[in-house]
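tool_call predict_complex ligand=nicotinamide-adenine-dinucleotide
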Amino acid sequence: MGIIEKMRLDGKKGFVTGAARGIGKCTATGFAEAGADVAIVDMDIAEAEKTAKEIAAATGRKVFALKCDVTNEAEVQAMVDKVVAELGGLNFCHANAGICINEAAEKMTYAQWLKVINVNLNSIFLTDTIAGKYMLAHGGGSIINTASMSAHIVNVPQPQCAYNASKAGVIQLTKSLAVEWAKKGVRVNSISPGYIGTDLIRSSEFLKPLIAKWEDFSPMGRLGAPEELESICVYLAGDTCAFTTGSDFIIDGAFTCF
Ligand code: NAD
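tool_result ok
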């Protein structure tokens, strides 16, 4: 069997959070194209259902939508239970839901800070530990977390201290879980995308005018496309990278290199 065949995810079952649109939609598509059955998990159930239908029709895999607020412990537990019941197991997950609030630190309210930390970091603890607990008891698995290049640099000119801090936390949590579970068959890695042209950026009146500035500063002169994150996630979900855990993969067109 060649390496491409070995990288396939036939027979594997997983879920992606924040998968109704953007990066999560693309990685869920990649997982299904590689042969996996996938749950599309999102707060926005109407959009998640559309996405699930689209991916199922394009790939012929079992793909279905689940409503879940990833900051709610009971909802995350119920979501993981439902994925296992519907798909008959859980081999991988991509904890990807996230938000950004652009506010100067001295003007940011504590409620805004907590919201970002809750959605971007506390949710990763919930998703990873609840999915991880199942994987630990059922032969192992692979967990992928979405961090950001903002875990590595401070973006300018827009202020986003809570976002940056939350994403740095995601990387250290990823490494901590990877070490704790290294001998137990559960791998945990993160991806750190640079600027990706999703609604997170394009539908923000505050961020939209900054796109040209970031493009100017970027060595490639452009934003990334969410599709450009699919293959790394398919790789991480599969078995060919059994020695890969506790790693963070920066995919930013060299934005953070200087
Ligand atoms: P997006 O806004 O297009 O999609 C995010 C999805 O997450 C939405 O469908 C939304 O409904 C869902 N979501 C938000 N809060 C949720 C919650 N509490 N529970 C369940 N679902 C929730 O964003 P995106 O650009 O696709 O970003 C996905 C991830 O990638 C985020 O973690 C983001 O921080 C990260 N990221 C994005 C970029 C970028 O430039 N777009 C760069 C680096 C990292």
